Amino acid sequence: MPVYDGATISLQESLLAILTFALTHKLTGLCISGLLSLIGLHCGPNNLLMNSHYKFKICQEPLDKKDSVRTRDRSHKNSEYFIEFPILSQLQSMFTRPASYESLQFRCNRVKREDTNIEDIYDGEIYQRFLNSGFLSNPNNLSFFMYFDGISLFKSSTFSIWPVYFTINELKYKLRTTKEKTILAGLWFGETKPNPNHFLRPLRESLSHWENTGEVLNLPNGQNVRVHAKLLGAVGDLPAKALFMRFMQYNGAFSCSNCMERGTRFDVGNNTIQVFPYSRNFELRTIEDTNDYAAQALHATRVFMQSKAPLCYLLCYLT
Fold first, then answer.
1. Which Pfam families match (predicted)?
2. What pLDDT digit, counting tens, does each position of 239-274 carry?
């Protein structure tokens, strides 16, 4: 998706260039904020540049105030950046395209092969819950699924990026996974893995606004509709899932996020791996137990039943 209509550079390419420039020249948070504003002035009023800027140090506390940016930027070392992208401008860009609004009504018009089949997300328990409650029965309302993972920027670099994408469930599957229909919600860039509580805080605030207040979007025919949106779930690989759920890695004791089985180590010759022998009797995890273990881990400053700390903002939002 281009930064603005007619641009030769995409939103992702623009972001990567800006962050690389900032780290190469060790720019302060205040300087980066000014740089983003300056670039935005050159891109016209309808650009997709980021709407907020969060900078983190090793302590990984959000630096929202100018004074704190100056104070914590003295060393210029181990800086991590989180950029939040405006959901509103990306959705508005989609809604102004011909037939985009109609394509969002796929959930209402699809024909199932068998009534009892689970053929798409609409047939799942969570989607049905919000459909029956009235939130998703409104044809103007949307739901998101979040995807996140970390990748190294270069083979020889210690920096990694963690993009956060939203897909729109109301689109047909082939459409919802295309670049044009995918929302880039945010991106972390730095030398360390992100602290998910700080990483997801601005996204949680944005999603809460979309669910409770919504935004008015313009259709190609001149009609205005108020759109609300809700996050239904998130997907990541096992290491990313453990990071965001504040669990130990999947290869440790009590590492299953669904049950309380401890598991055991299994010798495979020159190494051991964590295995979970089959059992008919096992105890399922509950959100209450998980929160309790997380609180105990935080109080004891050590891992407790695989929990490191309380669940991140977005997981609490989902539950």
1. Transposase_21 (PF02992)
2. 888 888 777 777 888 888 788 888 899 998 889 988
CA distances from 1 to 10, 95, 182, 188 (A): 5, 14, 9, 19
Residue 45 neighbours by CB distance under 10 Å = 7
Question: How many angstroms separate the CA atoms of 81 and 313, rounded?
Answer: 18
Neighbours of 125 (CB within 10 A): 7
Cα 310 to chain centroid distance, Å, stands at 18
> Tell me, what DSSP letter sits at residue 109?
H
Residue type, 234: A
Q: Cα 256 to chain center, whole Å?
A: 22
pLDDT per residue over 42-83, tens digit each?
877 666 665 555 544 434 445 443 332 322 333 444 567 777
Element (H, E) at 185: strand 183-190
Q: Where are the alpha helices (DSSP H) in the chain?
A: 11-24, 29-42, 66-72, 87-95, 100-103, 106-109, 125-132, 173-176, 196-199, 201-212, 238-244, 287-300, 313-318
Two tokens at 200?
A: 């997801």
* Residue 67: both structure tokens together: 């004074």
Structure-derived torsion over alpha carbons of residues 84, 143, 104, 163, reported in degrees to the nearest 10? 30
User: Are 275 and 260 a contacting pair, CB within 8 Å?
Assistant: no
Please state, as a whole number, how many other Cβ atoms lie within 10 Å of the Cβ of residue 199: 26
Instruction: For residues 317 and 310, give the distance between their C-alpha atoms in angstroms, rounded to a whole number.
Output: 13
